[in-house]
Structure formats: C-alpha cells, structure tokens
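Weekly sync, protein design subgroup
Attendees: M.S., D.O., the rotation student, P.L. (late)

Item 1: inverse folding check
M.S. brought a backbone from last month's batch and wanted to see whether the design step gives back something sensible before we order anything. D.O. pointed out we never logged the input encoding, so this time it goes straight into the notes. Structure tokens as presented (527 positions):
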C-alpha cells in the first residue's frame, strides 16, 4: 500500500503541528461511556422482573437507567478527561448494581440471551409523568416498527470531544470566515465523514459478536451457518450485531442525511421527523385510547435515527436534540458501533479506550473531503464486509473504486494514527497510547487475536454453545465484582443517588398538569 492511500497533506501537517504546539489541550479531551447489558436468569434466559427498585428510578437516575426493555440496563459515566477515571466510574456502577441483583446476572456479550416470545419481552416503564409516558410510548413505537427482539441487542457507546479551546486555534489556520461555533460544527462533521471512511477498522479490531443464539432470528431467513444445535455463526464474522442481521429499517433505508454540514444534516433529520411513512400510518398512533407510537413519521424522534456515529449537543431541560444542535452546534460525537467484549467485565478496557482516542483524533485532524452522491455506499460496503467476514484470509475492501487488502490498509492506517498516539502520550506522559496501537497491529498481523476469533476459540475449547459461553463469562464477571465490594462511603453515594432519583420521579409526576395529548402536541410543535 502506498503512502498516498492516507495522504499527509500540507493542511493536515499544519493541524498536526498546531496540536503539537498546544499539547496541554489534548489532555483536556473528554470521553464518556454508556454500556448496555441485559439482566438474565441463572439459566441464561431474559429476566422478566421489573427494573430493580433498589437501583432507583430509570427515568431520573443519571448513572443507571434502562434502554429499550425493562430488562436492558444502561450504565452511564460522566464525561471526564482521564479515560482511566471513566472506566473506574463504570466499574463502580457495576459493583453497586451487583449488590442489588437477586440471583440475576449481567449478560456478557452484545447479542441477546435466550429470549421469551416476542410479546413477552417487557418494554421499559418510566412512571406516570408525561416525560415517563413519552419514553415508554417511544419504545412501544420501536416495537411496532422493528420488533422487540431486535431491541435486545446491546452495545457500548463512546462519547468523545476535543477541548473547546482547540477549535479556535485550528480555525485560525484555515481560510474562510466561519464563526468559532460554525467551524467547530464543521470540524466535527469532518471527523464523522472520516469515521465513516475508516470505521471498518473498528469492526475488525473490536467486533466481538461472531455467533448468536438460534432463537434470536425467530425463524427468519438468513445466511448464517450452524455451529451447534443452539448456535448460528459466520466463520469469519467480526460483528453480526453490526451486520445486516442487526437493527434494520425499511423506512430508514431511504434516510441518508447529508454529512457534509450541520445544516444539511439537520435538514435531512427534520425531513424524516416531518414525513409520514405509509406503513406506520396504517398502524395508527392510538388505538381505543391507547398510544401505540409517538407519531407515524419516518422517525418518531431524533434518537430513532440509526447510525454508527452521531453529532451531539447536551440539551437543556425540555429542549429537543435537534433544537440544541441548531442553536448551539455540535459539542461531541457519539460512537455507537462498538460491541461489548464478553471477556472484559466492563465490556471495554483502557487499551481500547486509548486506541479510540487516537483513532478519533486522527479522524478529526486528517483531511476530510465532502461526500459525493453515493460515496457512502462504498464505505457501507466495506463496513458490512468486515462485519460479516473481516477475518477471512485475503479479504479485500474498496478504496476509491480500487481493491485493497484489509491487512495492508489497516496497517497503513495504524501507522498514521501512531502520529497522534505519540502526541497523546507526550501530553499525558508514558507510552500507553503507543502500547494500545501495538496491540491493535498485533491483531492485524494475527487474526486469531481479535475478540471475534477468541469468542469462537473459547466456545470450541470448552465445547460450549453461544449461551453456555456467554453465561460462563457472565458468572465469572459477577464473581469478580462481588468479591471486591465498594467502600461503605461509595456504596452510600449510589444508595443516595437511587433514593434521590425516586424522589425526583415522584416530584415530576406530582407537577404534571397537562394531559399526555397536550404534552405531545407541544413537543412535536418544537420539531
């Protein structure tokens, strides 16, 4: 592979030099993690119990909530400058939760456990406030549109931002008259475009879902192979979660908001929020007074848009995400394509986090031409190819209409990302980022070191089905967390958060004066 595959342009080298001259700003980057995981029984079945009251209110506890299902927990860390502190926060949440689980486990991989009948997968409940009803009805709409089974897939979301003070410095090196706010938004969209170009690499390095429980497909047609009587897989897959078996939508198949600017992106999202989709319209919004979905549009709300990465801005209370982006621009990005690593108690470790930081910094600084019409199809094809057969020897991807070997391209990308890893190590001290890159290069050199290969190898070594393997890992993690309880003071902090969240939910329910129809009319009017 020639060095021209990832060109070091004059503008890129200028940005690199500016960052090198302001190394202290690199240590001010923020990252946070959201980890989803199913609660399961000792036999590997989906827990049918309500969200544990001892964990607080799923509506108002900022660190412990639920995603789609009452059984699908979501743990949220604060955004911090030190990735080690982020993972320490995530670990503390896990340790607290395990003091409140009665005979249940946190499921170790991304793909689901043994699921009950579709109609018996419990949709998350958030109480009687209008905000709580809104969250519940939205999830009912997801069930109506995509089915409950698909909503039980779990993942890791990685939120990342560069120091706010870095963007004005970078803007001064560019031509143009953009404001700091507009330049920052444009720069984040440049990062997002590069992420789309190169995110197949993350599937290869961190994909950890090459197999699944046979019942997950509910008898649907598929091209998977049978590993055993209970398990389906693809021999070279890295992430079935992110393949075309995952969260799919015919309505969203036509939705491709432009990633060339914030304005064009918002225009595309607004169109989806305002466009009725005939099939959803046929199903109706309410039936005999019961809400079935928030509306019959392509998207009920912004968060329904499925993407491997999203531009984000923290919204004010009562403010819609699209309003926040429109008024104040992009603040950070949310990476959504990461599998949970079933060998890791937290589903992610510091080595992965450090590589992600270097990768995202590379995406932010590298030249990022705007997308031509249909250009994303090439990147989507690369991504899907790696998700389904990324470990196949000799696999080739497409770059600028030409075939290129995965290993050659991956090695070249890692070499270029290494320039940013060096700067991150200089900013923080030590060599941890370079060690993280070396660990990823080893996976490129030897596919058996990838998480997806190790999952299949472990199942083979222990003669286990997917469920047996996953349950064994879940029990190992549970044992580890329970053997290192929180200090009494830290335990009490979580107890207080849980108690205060319940009080806050009651307060919200007491304050509501308008009925839900009025609430929805006011909310939708703000789109």
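Designed sequence read out in the meeting:
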């Amino acid at each position: 592979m020639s060095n021209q595959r990832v060109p070091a342009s004059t503008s890129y080298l200028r940005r690199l030099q500016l960052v090198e001259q302001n190394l202290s700003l690199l240590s001010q980057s923020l990252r946070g993690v959201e980890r989803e995981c199913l609660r399961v029984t000792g036999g590997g079945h989906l827990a049918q119990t309500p969200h544990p009251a001892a964990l607080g209110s799923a509506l108002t506890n900022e660190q412990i909530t639920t995603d789609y299902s009452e059984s699908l927990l979501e743990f949220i860390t604060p955004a911090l400058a030190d990735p080690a502190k982020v993972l320490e926060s995530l670990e503390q949440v896990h340790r607290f939760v395990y003091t409140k689980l009665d005979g249940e486990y946190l499921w170790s991989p991304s793909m689901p456990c043994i699921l009950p009948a579709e109609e018996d997968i419990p949709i998350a409940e958030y109480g009687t406030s209008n905000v709580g009803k809104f969250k519940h009805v939205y999830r009912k709409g997801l069930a109506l549109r995509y089915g409950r089974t698909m909503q039980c897939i779990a993942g890791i979301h990685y939120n990342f931002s560069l120091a706010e003070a870095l963007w004005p410095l970078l803007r001064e090196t560019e031509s143009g008259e953009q404001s700091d706010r507009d330049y920052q938004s444009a720069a984040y969209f440049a990062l997002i475009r590069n992420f789309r170009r190169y995110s197949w690499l993350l599937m290869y390095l961190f994909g950890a879902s090459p197999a699944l429980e046979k019942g997950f497909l509910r008898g649907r047609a598929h091209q998977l192979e049978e590993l055993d009587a209970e398990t389906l897989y693809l021999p070279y897959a890295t992430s079935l979660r992110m393949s075309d078996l995952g969260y799919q939508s015919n309505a969203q198949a036509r939705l491709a908001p432009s990633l060339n600017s914030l304005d064009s992106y918002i225009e595309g999202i607004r169109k989806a929020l305002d466009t009725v989709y005939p099939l959803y319209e046929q199903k109706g919004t309410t039936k005999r007074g019961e809400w079935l979905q928030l509306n019959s549009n392509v998207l009920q709300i912004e968060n329904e848009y499925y993407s491997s990465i999203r531009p984000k801005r923290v919204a004010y209370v009562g403010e819609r995400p699209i309003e926040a982006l429109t008024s104040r621009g992009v603040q950070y990005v949310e990476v959504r394509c990461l599998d949970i690593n079933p060998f890791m108690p937290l589903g992610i470790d510091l080595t992965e986090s450090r590589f992600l930081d270097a990768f995202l910094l590379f995406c932010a600084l590298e030249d990022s031409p705007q997308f031509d019409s249909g250009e994303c199809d090439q990147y989507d094809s690369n991504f899907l190819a790696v998700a389904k057969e990324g470990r196949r020897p000799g696999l080739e991807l497409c770059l600028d209409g030409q075939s290129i070997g995965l290993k050659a391209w991956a090695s070249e990308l890692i070499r270029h990302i290494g320039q940013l890893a060096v700067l991150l190590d200089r900013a923080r001290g030590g060599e941890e980022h370079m060690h993280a890159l070396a660990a990823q290069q080893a996976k490129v050199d030897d596919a058996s070191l990838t998480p997806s290969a190790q999952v299949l190898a472990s199942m083979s070594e222990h003669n286990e089905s997917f469920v047996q393997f996953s349950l064994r890992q879940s029990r190992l993690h549970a044992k580890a967390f329970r053997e290192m309880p929180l200090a009494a003071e830290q335990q009490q902090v979580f107890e207080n958060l849980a108690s205060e969240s319940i009080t806050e939910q009651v307060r919200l329910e007491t304050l509501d004066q308008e009925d839900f129809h009025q609430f929805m009319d006011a909310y939708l009017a703000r789109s």
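Discussion: Residues 488-511 form the longest helix (24 residues). The chain has one domain: 3-524.
Action: P.L. to compare against the previous round before Friday.
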